Input
Amino acid sequence: MSKSLTETGPLRLQRFLARAGAASRRGSEDLMTAGRVTVNGQVCSELGTKVDPERDEVAVDGKLVTLADGTVNLILNKPTGYVTTMSDPQDRPTVAELVPTDQYPGLFPVGRLDEDTSGLLLFSTDGELAHRLLHPKWHVTKTYIARADGRITEKQLQRLREGIELDDGWTAPARAELIPETDDWTDEVETSADNPDLLQLRPYRASLVMLSIHEGRKRQVRRMLSSVGHPVTELARISFGPLALGDLEPGSWRLLTIEETAELEAAVDR
Output
């Protein structure tokens, strides 16, 4: 059983606010100096103030703030250029630099996104939950948007929906849909440089496709699209099970809501 994060004794108020997910440490200081934080009903703006998480009531703008009890779950909008590991012997930028490991010790990424893939990355302190979310038994769906070279045809989409044979075996059926995009989806006509009277169609530059899978093979989406002749140039994950990326900015994170946590656990029979 994981240790409760409330078992910490007195904390500086700005640290308490940061650990509770109200804001970053610096942002918490700003909340205090702006007079937006109360302790036991009294405005508290002195940065050296300490609170006891088990006895004191802390509020921001009148809303009670508490430390997470037990496990912590959060999502990160991972930018490209970061490897999904908590440390890297090659000193590459890691996702650990983007999440509050000092506030929530024990956080780890659930699954991985490649260095050149962006989007929703779930972190948790709950090993059992992570195991279930990644196990094929529970078929947790992950949805991506990919930009791929060339024009993807309906026949190729159908191949993706039925399953693709890769070098490590057949994939499970996927959901695959095209996303119209004005710049890349116009059959423009141009003239030939050698013969101005000869008209020809300008080739499609790229296709946007939404692909949903429930497996977790290495670089699976990229390999699937390459296998039908359309290498991926950009890839982002927009959802993981019931969790959606929404308008979370690249490089930013947020704690899951109580409702999201319940939906996530229900998805794996917790």
About this structure: Helices lie at 13-19, 25-33, 127-134, 154-162, 220-227, 258-267. DSSP finds six helices and 19 strands in the chain. The first strand starts at residue 11 and ends at 12.
